[in-house]
Structures are given as structure tokens and as C-alpha cells.
Write a structure and sequence with these properties.
This protein has 541 residues and is an alpha+beta fold. It has five helices and 19 strands. The protein has two domains: 155 residues, no CATH class; 306 residues, Porin, CATH 2.40.160. Strand 3 and strand 4 form a beta hairpin.
């Protein structure tokens, strides 16, 4: 019985270890050999991490279930072994006395040891006791198989939905503690520097959880050979209620919500999503409510859109991707009313904005090597017959220099594209009082970009350094516009730099420390600087 129990335990432990090894090996091979699809925009680093966490949690849950079952089986087998020994001990003793003699026993062998083969012979001789024990073991195995199937079914349906299709909940609970020196547009996650108020302190300290994110992914039916799915993601950075300590009660805000149809090489995406023409963002857990360096060269926006993607397999490892779509023609105007929507200048043109992108990619050192180019166009109607053509050209890159060192970034050049976060969120300039229909306007030219160097120091620790800059062309401003005619200071250049350490002691736990510096230059005023130290702790689910 000892050998039976030991064999069962060894076989089950080996199966668990082999299954974990196969699953991990398959995940690694998939990362190394599968041509990467188009990089997810904006918050790609968090989604990639969440995807990896979900895969690892699946494996861990399976291993935990198997371990729990093994412990239960071992406990039951141990109890059965003890009961069997109590029954067989007298029979074994009598058999040993009648069959064995002291001279025939091997040297050094104890009476207890000689009882084991005797009991084993009895257990295999077809007696009712042996048959009962075999039946009990068979029932135990059947119960274990039934329990495994029930656990697998429960795991697949642990998020209940009204329909028959499954859903998956994910997200991050994130706390940020920060200290700022200098004024900025936002205390929690500053985007550009600005002078502090007269008589106010230049240093501040605070903490927030409003960058916590919650996402839900729904897996729908197959339609015309395409897998259908949908996802929605929220955070709590939508403002503050006007109550005491209202800064602690961030309002829920819709980030993205989209629906997908995915064939083998083609995808159709409809919904509010990140800019597919600007798919990358710096790695930062100090700034999720707006991507890091959002107004310092990193184009971004969660914009309603309809797009089509097609992927060509040039070889076993090379992929060429084409993307094209239409977008809601936004220009960064704040809503004129908190409850009722009115058309912005881009929407008043009567047509959407248009965008295309193409990218080439292949794996290198276990990471994607990719280069992409994109273009954007939208027409804007600023009333009284005043129209502006907005356009931009972009490029993006991901270059693994070594297995643990990578370079990534983006660059753009455009005009009147404040709706994409360019020119520090500025779209046009007024040549006089904007209330007069005779006042001329001009689209603001700008250029900018960012680049990041990533060092994967250990499998759990990474170091990131990022620099970015966004520049509005001062020649468009001087001699044409003044601050008084444009509702506030006109920002000519915004320069940002950050460095952070991200430590993941477990797959679903992260710790981060970041230093960020913003240096902003208005056209008609002196420059401002703000520095922030940010400590973050997050748990992904």
C-alpha cells in the first residue's frame, strides 16, 4: 500500500510539473515565434501585463486545484492504509510465523518489514478485502475526474452574464503617492508646467487612487468565420464631486469601448478606442489617466472610430499590416454644456477625419522589431466661412537592441491637430477678437515626438528612461496672435523627461518609483518648471 500511495503521489506531482512546463514553454514559444499583431495604443504596457497575468493565473489556479486534490487523495489513502494495516496485522503475523523461519529471513530484516510482502500477497490474492479496496480506489478516481470537470467548468463561467457567452473581468487597483515642486496643469499627473498662483507654495504632496482601471471583455459568437468580442474600460479620473474631500471620490470615466470581428488575417474594429495611428506610449505607472508625456510629443486620444486591419504574412516571422479608418473629427474643444452636446469645428465640417497606417514587424531577441508610418487628415469649419485643413504624418518604431535592451518611440509633424494632443493641445490661432466674424484664423503648425530606452535588469525589474518634446512653431504665432485673443497663454514648447524603476515581485503585483521633469515655454511669457516624484503600487486582476 505504501508503494501504491507513493506512486500515486509521484505520478500526480510529475503530471503537474510537466503541465506547468508545457504551458510555460508554449507561452514563451508563442511570444518568440508568432508575428506580433498591431501594437495596442496608449495603455499598451498595462494591457500586455494584464494579458500575461491572466495566462499565469490560469496556470496557477490549475496547479493549486491539482495540489489540493492530491493532498485530499493522499489523506484518504493514508487513512485507508492505516485501516488496512489494522485489519491485516494479525493475519500477516500468523502467516509470517507459519511460513518464515529465523534462518530463512534475510540478515538485518525486521519482522515489520517481512509483514509488508505478506500483506501485499494477501491483497492481490483475490480476497474480498482486496476487492473492496480496489473498488474504493476506483470510486476515488471517478470522483476526482468529476471534481476536475466541475472546477474547469466553474473557472470558465466564474463571471456570470445574462447571455450564454462568457466574459472576463480585468484591471488594476493602483495607488499613487507623489510630491510636486512647481506649478502644473494637474496635481496628480501633470502634463505641462505653469506658474503657481501668487503667494502659493511651490511644493505639494498628495495621494490618489483615481487612476485605478476596470475592464470587461466579452467573447461573442462566431459570425461569417470571424470571432466576435467586445471590451470596455473605465477609470475614476472623470472629475471630483463638489463635496468635502471630494478629491478622494473620483468620478467614473469611460476610456475605451469597442467591438471586434477577427478573421485569421483581417479585423474590423468599431468603438471608442486609442489612436491606431499612434500605437505606442512610454512605460509609466505614474500616468495612466493620460498617457505619459501626453502633451510632450506623445499623440493620444480615446476617439470614436471605425477601422479595418489586414495582416500579410511575408514569411514565417515577418508581418506587414495595413490599417485604415474614419474617426470622430474632434479638435480638443471643451464641451459648451455639461449635459447637451453641440458640434465641434471638426464635426461641423460634415465629414469625419481619415487615417491610415502601415507597419512591418518581426520578432527579434524574443521581442517585436517593428516600424510604422501613418497619416491623418480632417477638415474643420470654424463658422463664418472660416475653414482649416488639419493634417499630420507620423512614424513609430520598436527596436530590440539586445535581449534585455530595447528602444521605442514616435515622431510626428502636423498642422491644426490639437485634437490628437499635438501642439500641447492647441489647434488654431485667432488673429483678433474671436467673437467677430471678420477675425482671421490660422492652423497651428507643430512637430514633436518621444523615445524610450528600456533595460530589463532582471525578469522582475526594469529601468525606463524617456525624453519627449512638442513644439508649436513660434513663427505662426508672432505677428499674428496674442494671448489676449486666444483665451490664455499660447504654449510654444513643452519638454518632458522621466525615469522609472518597475518591480514585479509577483506577476500580478507591481511597485514603481518615478521621477518626472516638465519644462514648458510660453510664447509671450517666461518658462516654468515642475518636478514630480511618484511612488506607485498596483495589483492587477
Amino acid at each position: 500500500m505504501n508503494s501504491l500511495w507513493t506512486s500515486t503521489f509521484v505520478l500526480r506531482s510529475s503530471a503537474i510539473t510537466a503541465a506547468a512546463f508545457v504551458l510555460l514553454s508554449a507561452g514563451c514559444m508563442a511570444q518568440e515565434t508568432t508575428p506580433p499583431a498591431a501594437a495596442q495604443p496608449g495603455d499598451a504596457s498595462v494591457r500586455d501585463l494584464a494579458s500575461q497575468v491572466r495566462e499565469l493565473r490560469t496556470l496557477i489556479e490549475q496547479m493549486r486545484t491539482e495540489n489540493a486534490q492530491s493532498r485530499a487523495e493522499m489523506q484518504e489513502l493514508r487513512q485507508e492504509l492505516q485501516d488496512t494495516r489494522k485489519v491485516l496485522a494479525p493475519l500477516a503475523a500468523s502467516t509470517a510465523n507459519s511460513v518464515s523461519t529465523p534462518e530463512s529471513a534475510p540478515s538485518g530484516e525486521s519482522a515489520g518489514a517481512s509483514a509488508i510482502p505478506a500483506s501485499g500477497a494477501l491483497a492481490t490474492s483475490g480476497t474480498p478485502l482486496a476487492a473492496d479496496l480496489g473498488n474504493r480506489l476506483q470510486r476515488l478516481e471517478e470522483s476526482t475526474q468529476l471534481l476536475n470537470s466541475k472546477v474547469d467548468e466553474q473557472y470558465q463561467t466564474k463571471v456570470e452574464t445574462a447571455g450564454k457567452y462568457r466574459a472576463r473581468l480585468s484591471g488594476i487597483v493602483l495607488m499613487n503617492a507623489f510630491r510636486n515642486v512647481g506649478g502644473s496643469d494637474d496635481l496628480d499627473f501633470p502634463n505641462y508646467a505653469q506658474p503657481g498662483g501668487a503667494g502659493t507654495s511651490q511644493a505639494s504632496f498628495g495621494a490618489t487612487l483615481r487612476q485605478t482601471e476596470i475592464g470587461l471583455e466579452i467573447f461573442g459568437p462566431t459570425l461569417a468565420g470571424a470571432r466576435s468580442s467586445a471590451n470596455v474600460q473605465f477609470d475614476f479620473a472623470g472629475g471630483f464631486p463638489s463635496t468635502p474631500n471630494g478629491v478622494n471620490f473620483g468620478l467614473v470615466r469611460l476610456q475605451t469601448a469597442s467591438l471586434r470581428l477577427d478573421w485569421e488575417h483581417t479585423s474590423v474594429i468599431a468603438g471608442q478606442d486609442s489612436l491606431f495611428i499612434s500605437p505606442l506610449s512610454p512605460t509609466s505607472f505614474a500616468s495612466l489617466a493620460t498617457p505619459a508625456l501626453a502633451y510632450a510629443g506623445n499623440l493620444w486620444g480615446w476617439t470614436p472610430q471605425l477601422r479595418i486591419e489586414h495582416r500579410f504574412d511575408l514569411s514565417a516571422q515577418q508581418t506587414l499590416t495595413f490599417q485604415g479608418g474614419i474617426l470622430d473629427n474632434l479638435d480638443w474643444e471643451p464641451p459648451s454644456d455639461p449635459f447637451f452636446r453641440s458640434a465641434q469645428a471638426g464635426e461641423s465640417s460634415g465629414q469625419p477625419a481619415y487615417a491610415i497606417r502601415t507597419a512591418w514587424s518581426r520578432p527579434l531577441f524574443g521581442h517585436p522589431l517593428s516600424f510604422g508610418t501613418a497619416g491623418y487628415y480632417g477638415r474643420q469649419n470654424w463658422a463664418w466661412g472660416r475653414s482649416v485643413d488639419a493634417w499630420a504624418g507620423m512614424t513609430d518604431w520598436q527596436i530590440p537592441i539586445l535581449r534585455r535592451v530595447g528602444l521605442s518611440g514616435e515622431f510626428y509633424r502636423g498642422r491644426a491637430v490639437g485634437g490628437l494632443g499635438a501642439a500641447i493641445g492647441q489647434t488654431i490661432l485667432f488673429g483678433g477678437n474671436p467673437a467677430y466674424p471678420t477675425t482671421s484664423i490660422r492652423g497651428l503648425d507643430s512637430a514633436g515626438g518621444w523615445t524610450q530606452l528600456k533595460f530589463q535588469l532582471t525578469p522582475k525589474l526594469e529601468l525606463n528612461g524617456v525624453f519627449g518634446e512638442d513644439t508649436a512653431f513660434a513663427g505662426d504665432v508672432r505677428g499674428f496672435a496674442t494671448d489676449a485673443n486666444n483665451f490664455g497663454p499660447i504654449l510654444g514648447r513643452n519638454r518632458g523627461a522621466l525615469g522609472n524603476l518597475v518591480y514585479r515581485p509577483r506577476s500580478d503585483l507591481l511597485l514603481s518609483a518615478e521621477f518626472r521633469r516638465l519644462h514648458t515655454f510660453p510664447i509671450f511669457d517666461s518658462a516654468s518648471v515642475t518636478n514630480q516624484v511618484n511612488l506607485a503600487m498596483g495589483i492587477l486582476f
